[in-house]
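HUMAN:
Sorry, I am quite new to this. Are you able to go through these amino acid letters and fold codes? The numbers rather puzzle me.
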Amino acid sequence: MSVPPPPQGFLGRNVRRGVDEGYEGAIYQYAYSSYRDEDLIQPRAVIYPIDDSDVFKAIDYATKYKLGIAIRTGGHSYCGSSSTNGYNIQLDLSRTYTDFTWDNDDHTQVTLGISITLSKLQSKLRSKKRFLPTGQCSYVNLGGHVQTGGYGQLTRSFGLLADYVQKIRIITANPPEARWVHRNVAEDRELFRAILGGSPGNFGVVTDVTLKVVKDEDHPLSRGFRCVFLYKKETLKKLLDVLVAQDDDDDTPGDYDLIISLMSKREEEEDRPVSVIVVYAQWANLKGPGQVYNSAFFDKIREAGGGREHMLPFHDILLDDVQVPMSELCSHWVFNMVREYQLPYFKRLYLSNSRSEDLKKSDWSTWASERVEALEGDRENGLHIAGQFQYCGGNQSRLRIKARDNLTSLSWRDSSFGCTLDAFYDYPGNPEQRKAYRSQPDSEGSRKALAGVKAAAKEWVERNDKEGVTEKKFTTQDRRMMWGSHDHDLVATREFYYDQEPKKYDELSELKLYVDPNCIFTPNKFSIGPHPARLQSHKVSLANVINYTIEE
């Protein structure tokens, strides 16, 4: 194709590759540390629209030159799917749509822009004693989060953030217009359903959403539990046994949520010299006033961790001894860090359709704790884990109950467990040795050392794939979610991301062709198909050099 001219004429900032200063900083997002040597995150330009007019200009430009538009609100796509390459352009909406307006006097409905972070959303809700189920990463923005479901700590007790969406404002390419898509309007049903779970950013530019929120006063007796235990393989195994046991009874009350997180020692945290297990648990008081609280669930967690005397000091430790409003609990579930480590990684997120008896039969808790120990056992191997384990199943799970109205296209809502096992990699050795490697990143020794750690990280996650999925230690079906993808071609891997195959995918693909016939919003191959001819195949491999200078 002929080379299109660089995009211009925008009211907002326009940073063009090879033309304007600040390009490398403008293209940076979460996945950049892993793919910086690939051309996956190399848009022709990064445009920061100030309003709808700039978005329409970008659509006109892409239509005229047959290009794609990637949409980024927070840039937390693990596989880089919120970016693009070639002559395609990047729309950065991180500061474009920031309005927050209560729609009624009793503060039960709010309309807000998709550029708002989760921490700001929770703060605004908390000021009115309101809350919503969201994820735990405070710097994630609403746009991509709600379109991929909005999974988090409250998934079992209150469902997904997407379940609370009442209407969505979207700018489409066909026709080129801004419109509201309503939850309960018949002619909007298909598009509403597609936006929430179909393929984020691929149907148009979502600008605002209206959400129905939940009142603290409806759950006045709620309690939470957050604590830190020193990482030990035995402790992790016991806590995972508690997690699995939640599924022993099909009717385990929906009030209980439990997430077990695991973090390697972070080099920059001098006050935390060891790896830790962080437990987040809550009792949501779903039945409201009069419901009787029982501490047995939290007692099991304490016992598995070794008792209160084994809890590490924490700046705002939370125990179930007192009642805490849900809006306040939600602020405890959001952790205040941009990312786990400033390092490249191999991402893995698994969902499981197995029941507790299946996991006990496969001795999954022993296997999982041993796989963690294989990475954590050597503190100088250059490997760091970000692990998370969650129970979301049972007949009382709102993840399942709220799926019955079929208003979203989110898949695998009958899953019982979720598991994240991410491997980040760094130079090996003690701090002084790592410092020496970093001082000469292009030397043969540094490259060889990092390549060895990278190979070990890759081998670790691939063995987890083989044993946990293929050999069915964790799940009998390969189930993945878009917000935690490690794939780069959605069409080729669609069976892992969409249930009801092929019906759901085919319906979404047909709608995609209707609202975006020129595939303007297909900027890369991790997009719902069909894929336009301009998307070339890419050989994807992780970067061999770590960039320690870029700040997120």
Summary: Residues 444-470 form the longest helix (27 residues).
